[in-house]
Amino acid sequence: MTRLLTVILTAATLLGGTSLAMADAEYNPLADLFSFTNRSGTGPIPRTTVGFQGNYAPGTIIIDTKERRLYLVQEGGRALRYGIGVGRDGFRWGGVHRITAKKEWPSWTPPAQMLRRRPDLPRHMVGGPDNPLGARAMYLGSTLYRIHGSNEPETIGQAVSSGCFRMVNDDVIDLYDRVRVGATVIVKN
């Protein structure tokens, strides 16, 4: 146990010492070892495989904002079901888009309309465990919306975002590894 603690403290010191130097760089994935993400895949809403009706191609993502669930369609009438956080009142939307980009530990620049509502927000944040976009982000069409992780896992299952779909980091990593750029995303509002 002492050796493990020494390794953790040494790594934290090294990572902490590089944080200022990394201000314009992408997040160092080694820091993921020290984030408090849900590693069991259960989150506040457990990820499960369920039966799924519909004529959707495997790999299609269906988001049900009322149910606050995201479904990744699989073969044989099944889907992986994940819990998500959705847009609060006035920020929910529906439609069909494609995943146009995927990023690990994405940086975040709040859009102008969000800064008008929340002038206290930073103008830019590099990726990392404190970043509101979490461990992964999948960008939806040419919109400002994303399916992304969260540094606030307690918000999963709630309507609190500005229109993006939040997931616990373990679930967004799982989804990210399963989908490709170009995948269809159907948002049912």
From TrEMBL:
PROSITE patterns attached to this UniProt entry: LD_TPASE
Name of a matching Pfam family: YkuD
GO CC annotations on file: extracellular region
Gene Ontology terms for molecular function: glycosyltransferase activity; peptidoglycan L,D-transpeptidase activity
Protein's UniProt keywords contain Lipid metabolism: no
Signal sequence extent: 1-23
Keyword Amino-acid biosynthesis: no
Record keywords: Cell shape, Cell wall biogenesis/degradation, Glycosyltransferase, Hydrolase, Peptidoglycan synthesis, Signal, Transferase
InterPro entries: LD-transpeptidase, LD_TPept_cat_dom, Transpep_catalytic_dom
Pathway(s) it belongs to: Cell wall biogenesis; peptidoglycan biosynthesis
Domain L,D-TPase catalytic positions: 59-188
GO biological process: cell wall organization; peptidoglycan-protein cross-linking; regulation of cell shape
Record-annotated active site: 148 (proton donor/acceptor), 164 (nucleophile)
Record family assignment: Belongs to the YkuD family.
Name of this chain's protein: L,D-TPase catalytic domain-containing protein
Organism expressing this protein natively: Afipia broomeae ATCC 49717
